[in-house]
Each structure stands twice: as C-alpha cells, then as structure tokens.
Amino acid sequence: MKIQPYKTLKSYIKSDLKEKKSIFLAKAYPVGNKDEVANILINLKKIHYDASHLCYAYRLLSGKSKFSDAGEPSGTAGIRILNAINHFGLENCLLVVIRYFGGTKLGIGSLGKAYYSVAFQVLSESNIITKKPFLQAEMKLPLASFNKLKSVLASNQIKVVETVYNSEISFKLQIPFELLGKIKSKMMEILKGEVVIAVKDEIIYK
Which structural domain range is residue 158 located in? Predict the structure, then answer.
C-alpha cells in the first residue's frame, strides 16, 4: 500500500430521497476496518428490520472494497453506491442506502439512478477531510540543546505528544511521513550529533 494522504468523511451524515413513493435513506460513515463495517451493518439491520432492502458499499485504505445489492436487481444498487464513493475519491468510507418500497416499481434504469443519486447527494452534503500520514518517533537530547530544536519542530508540523525532563530531555513526536528524511537531517545538522532519534514503523493518519 502506497503511503500518502487520503480523503475521507469527517463524521457520520445522512440524507434521503423519495422516488415514486419509495423512500431511500442514505447513511455515510467514516470507518477504519472491516470489523467497524460489520458492526454498523448489524446495528442498521436491527434498526431497519422492516426495510425492503439494505444495500451498501465501502472502500478501505487497504484497497479493499465491497458492495451488496441486498436483493435488488444486479447492478442497480451496490455498484452504484460504490461509484459515488469512487467519484469523491474517498477511502475508509461506508455508505448504506436503505429502501422502503412504496408500491410502485421503478424499473432497472430508474432504480439504479435513484441509488446513485441519493449516494451522491449524501456525500455532496458531507464534510470531506484529508488525512496525512505521520510516523511516531522518540528523541533524546541534552537539556541545553532544546532551544536549538524549537524552530525545527514549529516549522515542520511536528507534534510533540509527550515530553519528559531528566538529565536530558525526551520527546515522543509525530512527524509528517514525507518530511522524515529532511527533518532528521536538519536535526542532526543543528544539534551536531547530540540527538538520538528512534523512528517506529507504525504509520498513523491525522
């Protein structure tokens, strides 16, 4: 998986559409993994036990995607919902469309259009954010050298998570992934070897 920023939803959002007496409820969620997706779907199926269809699609940062027509004609629901997610370029997103049948059949074309329209609508109304990759690191340096480092931390989006003062100063940092090499070189240049930096393999997105 390529490590780079990605777009996702900031928070849960819902919207709805009425088409020939059928009601389409769209619910979009930011998710982190398949377990979160499964739990949301289980809960929604309990809440909307009386719905005619509960269709969904999701796409994860890992590249995994899945969709379900939930009994609707093939190609009219799940793939249309996924197409809306892909249109906005979202990752770690689950979009569920719940249909309450109104008694009038829509036909294949109109049904597919309705699912895509409500999915597109809810994402258009959502707050889309960009999450950037950060590496976690630990750093130690003499107390006397701290002032030399302040400008590097402040000017490179480096977040200090924890600071411990003893005979030397220890930091836990979150460093932008794309700036790691530059920042390490700058620190070594300014502090002339007085700093020890240990970078963890784990990537976090913020």
Answer: 132-205
Same domain, 165 and 103: no
Residues 126 and 154 in one domain: no
97-127 per-position pLDDT tens digit: 999 998 888 889 999 999 999 999 999 999 9
DSSP string, 57-96: EEE-TTS-EEEE-TTSPTTSSHHHHHHHHHHTTBSSEEEE
In a domain, 55, yes or no: yes
Is residue 83 packed enough to be buried (19+ CB in 10 Å), middle (13-18) or exposed (0-12)? Answer: middle
Q: What is the structure's pLDDT at 1?
A: 58
Q: How many helices (H) does the chain have, and how many strands (E)? A: 5, 11
What tokens were used for 15?
Answer: 């919207």
Contact 190, 148 (CB under 8 A): yes
**Tell me, what CATH number does 191's domain have?**
3.30.70.240
Q: Is there a single domain that holds both residue 20 and residue 88?
A: yes
Give the distance between the most distant pair of CA atoms in the chain: 77
CA angle 185-187-188, nearest 5°? 65
Confidence of residue 201 (pLDDT cuts 50, 70, 90): low
